[in-house]
Request: fold
Amino acid sequence: MIEIRHIPVRSHDGTELMGYDCGGGPGPTIVLANGLGGNIDAWRYFTDFFGPKHRIISWDYRGLYRSGPAAGSDYSVATHADDGVAVMDALGVDKAILVGWSMGVQVSFEVLRRHAARVLGLVMINGTFGRPLATAFAPLLKTSPIKPLIPAILRGVEAVAFLAEPGQPYAQRLVQIKVSLTVLKALGLVSQTLDDKMFVELATQVAGLNMTRYMAILNSLGDHCAEALLPQIDKPTLIISGDRDLFTPVQQSREMVRRIAEAELLVIPSGTHYTPLEFPELIHLRVQKFLRERLGFDGEAVLAA
Reply:
């Protein structure tokens, strides 16, 4: 397993972030933008595969894991993007390939919007460009009267999220019970090929997060939209989606490919919202092909030299 160095970073508004730095080699630097509730551990397969050929950096979103709470109260997607750039600056990274998963797709769009000259290319995994709460579970909620009420419900949950704290140890135990994962698979929320051990480890960590901050980030994410940016994107872009992703349906990925001139699409059969933990080898080989064909870097040739 590749060594990951922890690098404290202070963001533009004084928020204390935890940055991560690993790998090396001649390839362009890769910046990983997490999903909501994700951290560097979720990228373990990715960092082990690409680390020998690329420097890879990432960070914990403000308010989550080892990063401190926002110095003010700003948990917007734009501010998370600014945090990512602050980490790049602190680690001396001028240009990079942005790889985002879920929420990280929208964070990556915001980095591109503000600092296009620093972006070499985009790899967008299980994400969307618009307000994700409006399209999540779209096939199931298409005609449901509850759908328009979801944003208001989630804001109400944010207001009382602190009440969940006493129950978090029980939630952590629940996700560790084998039957819980069996139910998720039966409902189609995760694939049968999921790395069960890693998923449970990550779910346990998520269940222990500060829920007030988590909900604040979720609601800010729900307000974010990068739709107007799509026709302006002129960077090589690879979009990866699972055809059973209920959180960010594959239709959103197809629409991104239609609107981004330089985009190409990989749809993973039976993939859900957790394709990096379900089909890591497939994703790695497709990203490697993208780097070779679109950005001119052949990692296999480098290793063979």
Remarks:
- The mean pLDDT is 89.
